[in-house]
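If you are new to this repository, start here. Below is one unmodified record pulled from the training split, so you can see the exact layout before writing a loader.
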Amino acid sequence: MSKALLEIDNLCVDFQVPSGTVSAVRGVSFTIHEGETLALVGESGSGKSVTSTATMRLLPELAKVTGAIRFDGEDLLKVTPKRMRRIRGNDISMIFQEPMTSLNPLHRIGRQIAEVLGKHRGLKGSAARSKVIELLNQVGIPEPERRIDSYPHELSGGQRQRVMIAIALACEPKLLIADEPTTALDVTVQAQILELLKDLQQRYGMAILFITHDLTLVKHFADRVCVMRYGEVVETGETQALFTSPQHDYTKMLIDAEPQGTKAMGDANAPVLLEARDVHVRFALKKRLFGKSEYFEAVRGIDLTVRRGQTIGIVGESGSGKSTFGRALLRLLDSSGDITFEQVDITQLDKNGMRPLRSKMQVVFQDPFGSLSPRLTVGEIISEGLKVHHPEFTRRDRDARVAEALAEVSLDPAMRNRYPHEFSGGQRQRIAIARALVLKPEFLLLDEPTSALDRSVQVTVIELLRNLQRKYDLTYLFISHDLSVVRALADTVLVMKEGQVVERGIAAEIFAAPKEPYTRALMKAAFLTSPVSAA
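And here is the target side for that same chain:
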């Protein structure tokens, strides 16, 4: 066994708030050895990120931290702030979940990486620039000599995460803390980032504390696993042994919280609800007074037929045109081509002409917190559509329909006077679904409705959607980059790449035997094929 690098012993973190004391971490203990990858897993609120932030001594002043955090034999809770600043970034580095909020939007990426080199290694000028280019090359940024002068918004999500990794590895740390480093990424980019971390780990011999709620990734990446719940460690063990024979009921629940089964095929002879032919969506890049204007074609000539009671799954990476196509179908974006809904050509309808159909065509967005107004109560949010489409309803009528919609999504109607921030992520997504259901629609566009949720919460939302579809004969267009969720919900699947459909067919057949190399690459990246051995 290699030498113990990080030893966390009986760590407790309490936050003093006006209402009292909140215990976020309670008696947590675990060890990470040199060169080892330890996965810290659990649902949102389990204390994973608080534990890692305490290790870096980055918690706010209102946090009371007790116990011991020994790094290379030195208790980090007892060292001076000056000593901690030397350790932080030099010996222990951290990759945060959302690179866009972690990178300074006003500074070029080269300057942000060079800042670490100047602070800890004294590198300046041309020496620092050469090292930055070397780091960008190591993390797989194309054309590093040019990209070094780019701003964060000029890079893709995967490239921004690679820049974060370059910053973290600039001083060749002994320990890398990766806090949900792949959550917001496509499955292919996610696989590339994990492979990159494996390669860099072997190159530098560093240990990794990998924090995630996705056990599928853990199974393929970690040497050992530490499971947290409500601020406590409930189980620790070797990865293979823990997945083969978990001991704690909570661990068993997490492992089983994978979308299961497939949807039975809908009636192939059901009436056509929505039909699209040769749909194109173009965005103007540059408009010129003289000469030809430049356009970007996000959706290029897609056909689609949707029958009542069907679920059409659309998968593909970010930028493939999935969401753009979905919004064009609902006439939320301008497009060319023919789109009919209930045999009405809606491409010829203006805003006023579309309004009567809006109650029949509803949307559930990816981020429930961002799509729900924080200034309105849940009851007010859900009843907004009723005021527009059913002005004849009295306040009592609207209140009754809101209560009914909340009950449909398994939420207590008595909570309708609360605000969105008082609910969990899964509950907020149920509220978003209730807002769509209150108008009794026939067609629902579900745009990444589960991507921001824990796996266990995903499973409950998927089951809810299945039940609602059976009960009301709803028709879904389900957009996602999470192939396991699509497999559990969809009758048929469209695979999109660069604005075009590269493969389509019955979901079970595509997942069993994809024909196109791109589809196979998506499946492999999502670990829906044979597993890759852990590092």
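Two things worth knowing about this chain: The chain has 21 helices and 20 strands. Residues 12 and 320 are 45 Å apart (CA to CA).
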